[in-house]
Amino acid sequence: MFQLKKSGSIAALGLVCASIAGHAIADEVVVQNDSLTNGDTAAICPCFAGGEEAAVWLTSPCDGNIVGIQIFWRSLLGGSQPSLEDAIIIYEGGSFPNPGAVKDEFVGPALQDGGLNEFRYEDENQTIPISVPVSAGEEFVVSLKFFNSNNTSTSLPSIVSDAQGCQPGKNAVKVNGVFWANACSLGVSGDWVIRAIIDCGGEPIGAACLPDGSCVDGLTESQAVDLGGVWNGTGSSCADVQCLGACFIPATEECVQFDLATCNLVGGVWAGPGTTDCVNPCPADLNGDGNLNFFDVSAFLTAYNKMDPLADFNDDGAFDFFDVSAFLTAYNAGCP
């Protein structure tokens, strides 16, 4: 379990770790509780057991997206091998010291000994950018969940605090991986050096469903529209998205929501991702028998004389020559 020992103090030389170093962008803001700067003294806390978490409460300064997480990781002597830990978890604010629901989780972060590690992707292949929406004034929680226990030796690497006083309501520990506790009451001497990078400008990114039924991660809404696709919202991921659309099934004349593959499997006609109105491949086949003949003409004339919406072929709310012309055009085009 969490065991606070006499923490080793180190000179915090070089806050950006070359391992996963990021780059500042004009609209990005780093949100933090700690006051650690280059040359300051930091307190290492090799006091965690596997499954425990160190967490900070942060507040967003804007409507934007969390696009990166920074964690200071250091051993007393330096030079330790990279530590593959359990996860970085972003929670809703909840009620201190208990976070709220999980907003997102990035598994298997590899932390390098010696400074501030920066993470901007959800996956190790760096194909899915971190993008977690937050609103101005929203309180959220960022936590590091440990896989490796480091409370057996003061020489093992761990998270650090700024050793300049532990602010109330800002730092917590999930003890034994079971219950949350105020880090200050556990004797932690400063604020955990866990920071969030928030993009306060520009277009957010998410998953987009393309006309061919495929899904692509990491696109802005405008990029999705330019490709003729449908955007699924800020922070959305293809792993959680189904690219559904309207599917017209001629055999049953049903209009259902399917993905492209399923629609093709049942012999349907897909209208594209995000659509709700079906495309009838043979609109002049009014009796639905799959053939165009006298019976369809008779059905149109009967509906036309009754001013039945079925005969409003151009959907303008009127029954006139333009409906007759539209029907004859569709009739002459035939069925696919």
SSE arrangement:
Blueprint: E1 9-11, E2 28-31, E3 41-44, E4 53-59, E5 64-74, E6 83-84, E7 87-92, E8 102-107, E9 110-111, E10 115-119, E11 132-134, E12 139-145, E13 158-161, E14 171-175, E15 179-182, E16 194-199, E17 205-209, E18 215-220, H1 221-226, E19 230-231, E20 245-249, E21 254-258, H2 260-265, E22 269-273, H3 294-305, H4 321-333
Antiparallel strand pairs: 1-3, 2-16, 3-13, 4-12, 4-14, 5-10, 5-11, 5-13, 5-16, 6-9, 7-8, 7-12, 14-15, 17-18, 17-19, 20-21, 20-22
Characterize the largest beta sheet: strand count, sense, and whether it forms a barrel: 8 strands, antiparallel
Note the run of SSEs as H and E: EEEEEEEEEEEEEEEEEEHEEEHEHH
Q: What distance lies between the first and last C-alpha atoms, to the nearest angstrom?
A: 69 Å
The residue-averaged pLDDT reads 86
State the CATH topology of the largest domain: Jelly Rolls
Uncertain stretches: 11-26
In the residues, how many domains can be counted?
A: 2
Strand content: 25-35%
Number of strands: 22
In percent, how helical is the residue content?
Answer: 10-25%
CATH top level class name of the largest domain: Mainly Beta
Number of helices: 4
Q: What's the shape?
A: elongated
User: Structural class per helix/strand content?
Assistant: mainly beta
Query: What would you report as the Rg, rounded to the nearest angstrom?
Result: 29 Å
Can you name the CATH architecture of the largest domain?
Answer: Sandwich
